[in-house]
UniProtKB/TrEMBL annotation:
Keywords: Iron, Iron-sulfur, Metal-binding, Methyltransferase, S-adenosyl-L-methionine, Transferase. One of its GO terms (molecular function) is catalytic activity. PANTHER family: ANAEROBIC MAGNESIUM-PROTOPORPHYRIN IX MONOMETHYL ESTER CYCLASE-RELATED, BLL1977 PROTEIN. InterPro entries: BchE-like (IPR051198), Cobalamin-bd (IPR006158), Cobalamin-bd_sf (IPR036724), Elp3/MiaA/NifB-like_rSAM (IPR006638), Methyltransferase_Class_B (IPR034466), rSAM (IPR007197), rSAM_horseshoe (IPR023404), rSAM_sf (IPR058240). Residues 187-411 form the Radical SAM core domain. Its cofactor is [4Fe-4S] cluster. Pfam families: B12-binding, Radical_SAM. It comes from the Bacteria. This is Radical SAM protein. Gene3D superfamilies: Cobalamin-binding domain (3.40.50.280), tm_1862 like domain (3.80.30.20). Residues 7-141 form the B12-binding domain. The keyword Metal-binding applies.
Length: 447
């Protein structure tokens, strides 16, 4: 069977972003090729950044199956593409996988006839089993024995099968097959590429689907990670972003990876996502010594009540200490905050701005609360004092402009104003200089 994966277009210029190949397709490719299938990839951002570009790929390749990833950020674009394909090629089965469809398969299949099959949780085994079944022209009844899929049966009823067993040792999935990507486009655009060396997260934040999707924290061995690093360095990349939701969730593994990087004399700069709780002296020292120059830390809020409510597992005081610790190891700090988090008000956001002025991160970014399907915040926004008027917000584009949820104390327009205010101030390279003199009292309170 010929399988065509599609990386959707963006609704804005993609060349204002970090562009990385969608590695999920590379992992699936390993398994598909083992079973004798051919794998192709249509990277629409590099092909006119328009949904129509997919049609010429289909005309040339004549695929038997088409696969896309469905995440909240790109679901609107995924649907644009699948609707277009169904208009022109109604007989080609279309499969979507990813965290969004995993948690709302009935909603997705009931509302979107352009999607035929969904892959739930880790896709490797389920996707290949599905392609093999399509090749064998399996009946709906036979499809029910494939783990981790959802589909409409011959009566139009949505069938959801139990998930495939969790694979604990991610080395089993191999190094993603990057030969399916047009890497020359990525190399021409940027010297940085992405590796993903773990799935899931040890934390249980109630607004995040990572922990539900990953089911538990699983990772690659240090040897496997360094083999993959060597591979991408040999391809010409010179910087790496570890796109794991939390790269350093296991301190020993992190230190072992750093030791192995140095033992192999691998020279490259890298960044990673990090939980504040994982910022420990021995870990930070090892990371800096192995080329880490920046970490991305989701602070989310500096209100104790909010951190408790969203089960962030930390306190404002600890966040303050960790921010300073990270910087003391000469590692740049990219800090992220939620504006319009449960309990947010004008007062709490003024305090957040003071906090940022004091910790003085290299970069600060701000997002509004976007409750993701499957999470407790999505299922029960009222428990968090949030109002989410449209549970299908992820099907539309409005969420890029309008906050999808708000609090009793902050309207949507007020949240937007706060986000603009934060970006106006903290995207100024001199922001600390302009405020330091006002902050002595606040600083003393945090010290
Ligand atoms: S620490 Fe980050 S990745 Fe982990 S559950 Fe919380 S928000 Fe998600």
């Amino acid at each position: 069977m010929k399988v065509l994966f599609v990386n959707p277009h963006y609704s804005f210029d993609p060349f204002t972003l970090l562009l990385h190949p969608p590695l999920a397709f590379g992992y699936l490719s390993n398994f598909l090729k083992k079973d004798g299938h051919e794998v192709y990839h249509a990277d629409l951002p590099f092909h006119g950044n328009r949904p129509e570009a997919v049609l010429s790929f289909i005309e040339t390749i004549q695929p038997d199956v088409i696969g896309l990833t469905a995440v909240a950020q790109s679901f609107y674009h995924t649907l644009e593409i699948t609707t277009l394909i169904k208009q022109h090629y109604p007989a080609i089965p279309i499969v979507a996988g990813g965290p969004l469809v995993t948690f709302v398969p009935e909603d997705v299949l009931t509302r979107h006839p352009s999607l035929d099959y969904l892959i739930l949780y880790d896709g490797e085994e389920s996707f290949v089993a599905l392609v093999n079944a399509l090749q064998a022209r399996a009946t709906s009844q036979q499809m029910k024995s494939i783990p981790g899929i959802a589909f409409r049966d011959s009566h139009g009823s949505v069938i959801v099968t139990p998930p495939a067993p969790t694979v604990s040792d991610l080395d089993y999935y191999g190094i993603p097959d990057r030969s399916i990507f047009e890497l020359k486009n990525y190399l021409a655009y940027d010297y940085e590429t992405v590796l993903v060396t773990s799935r899931g997260c040890p934390s249980r934040c109630t607004f995040c689907s990572t922990t539900l999707m990953g089911r538990n924290f699983r990772y690659n061995s240090p040897k496997h990670v360094c083999d993959e690093i060597e591979q991408v360095l040999n391809m010409g990349f010179s910087s790496i972003f570890f796109g794991d939701d939390t790269f350093s969730g296991n301190s020993k593994r992190t230190i072992d990876i750093c030791t192995e990087i140095n033992a192999r004399s691998l020279k490259f700069n890298w960044t990673s996502n990090m939980r504040a709780i994982d910022a420990k002296p021995d870990v930070l020292e090892a990371m800096r010594g192995a080329g880490a120059y920046r970490v991305f830390v989701g602070f989310e809020s500096i209100q104790n009540s909010t951190l408790k409510l969203i089960k962030k597992g930390t306190t404002p005081e600890r966040l303050f200490q960790k921010a300073n610790l990270i910087k003391s190891y000469d590692i740049e700090l990219h800090s992220a905050f939620i504006i319009g988090a449960p309990g947010d008000s004008d007062v709490s956001l003024r305090e957040t701005m003071d906090f940022i002025r004091i910790i003085n991160p290299t970069v600060a970014t701000f997002n509004c609360m976007e409750p993701r399907p499957g999470t407790d915040v999505y299922n029960h926004p009222e428990r968090y004092g949030l109002i989410m008027p449209d549970k299908y917000w992820y099907e539309k584009l409005d969420w890029m402009e309008e906050p999808v949820s708000y609090t009793a104390d902050l309207s949507r327009s007020e949240i937007k104003q706060w986000i603009n205010r934060c970006y106006d101030e903290f995207c100024s390279p001199t922001f600390l200089d302009t405020h330091t003199n006002d902050l002595e009292m606040v600083k003393a309170a945090w010290a």
